[in-house]
Amino acid sequence: MVRYRFTFRTRTGQRIDNVSIIAGSQKHAERRLRQMYDRCEILQCHEAAIPRSFDPGGMASVIDLFVSSPPTVIGQSQPL
Fold first, then answer.
1. Is the four-CA dihedral 9, 15, 17, 22 of positive or negative sign?
2. Smallest Cα–Cα separation from 45: which of 18, 11, 14, 13?
3. Helices of type H across 1-80
4. How far apart are CA 80 and CA 77, in angstroms?
5. Is the four-CA dihedral 37, 8, 39, 26 of positive or negative sign?
6. CB 40 within 8 A of CB 9
7. Is the C or the N end of the chain the one with fewer CB within 10 Å?
8. How far apart are CA 78 and CA 21, in angstroms?
9. Which residues, 6 or more positions from 40, have their beta carbon under 8 angstroms from its beta carbon?
10. Per-residue pLDDT reduced to its tens digit, 32-76
């Protein structure tokens, strides 16, 4: 996915800067912008790649944390 940052003018003439939309293509981002701001005039569009924050080694360390720690009993049921 890519983050698109728009500067545009509304149909009433108000200028709006830095509206970010995450989409697969610029065409889809413009369509979503026009859904929110009907008949707007796009003045500028900047695109920036979104860095991926998924670390494949991170999931293994989370699993190791669960496996190595003893189970915790939150509450015990009392016999009737």
1. negative
2. 18
3. 26-36, 56-68
4. 9
5. negative
6. yes
7. C
8. 54
9. 8, 9, 10, 11, 33, 34
10. 999 999 999 999 999 998 877 655 566 666 666 666 656 666 666
4: number of Cβ within 10 Å: 21
Please name the residues in contact with 7: beta carbons below 8 A apart, sequence gap of 6 or more: 15, 16, 17, 18, 19, 42, 43, 44, 45
Could you give the CA distance from residue 19 to residue 37 in angstroms, rounded to a whole number? 11
Tokens for 22?
């995450």
Predicted TM-score (pTM) of the model is 0.62
Residue 26 and residue 4 in contact, taking contact as beta carbons nearer than 8 Å: yes
- Cα(19)–Cα(36) distance, integer angstroms: 11
